[in-house]
Amino acid sequence: xxxxxxIVCLGNICRSPMGEAVLRNEALKRGITDIHVDxxxxxxxxxxxxxxxxxxxxxxxxxxxxxxxxxxxxxxDFTSFDYILAADGSNLRALERHVGHSEGSKATVKxxxxxxxxxxxxxxxxxxxxxxxxxxxxxxxxxxxxxLDEVAGKKN
Length: 156
Fold this sequence. Notes:
Strand order of the largest sheet: 2-1-3-4
Structural class: alpha/beta
Number of helices: 6
Shape: globular
C-alpha cells in the first residue's frame, strides 16, 4: 500500500518543497518506494514558481534531487493524501480551516514537528540567509526519519 504525504508551508517555495525532496530521499535510502510525496502552500503568492534558489542550493549541496512547481493546497488534497503535514502552527490552523478538511477528509492533518518529542515548527527561512535554509534541511532530515519510523517502521 502506497503512503501519500503532502508537506505544507506558506508559499511552497522554501520549506515544503525542501521537505518533499528530503522525505522522498530519506524514504529511498531506506528502500521505501511505495510512497508518494508532494508539497503545497496555504497561500497563492508563488503558484507556478520554482523553489527558492537557496532551497535548490542546499538540496544540491546534499545531493538531494529537487524539482517542483509551487501550488496551493486544494480541497481534493484532503481526500487524496493520507498525511498532510504542516511546517508550523499558522499553516496547520489554515489547513484546519480549509474547506477540504471538513468535506470527507481521509488525511491525518498535523504539525510535521509533532513526530519528534520537541514538537518544533520549521521556521520560515525566506527572509534570512543560507544558514537558515541549512537548518531547515537538517530539521527536514530529522522529521522525515521520525515520520518514516512511525508510519513505515524503524530504520534498520
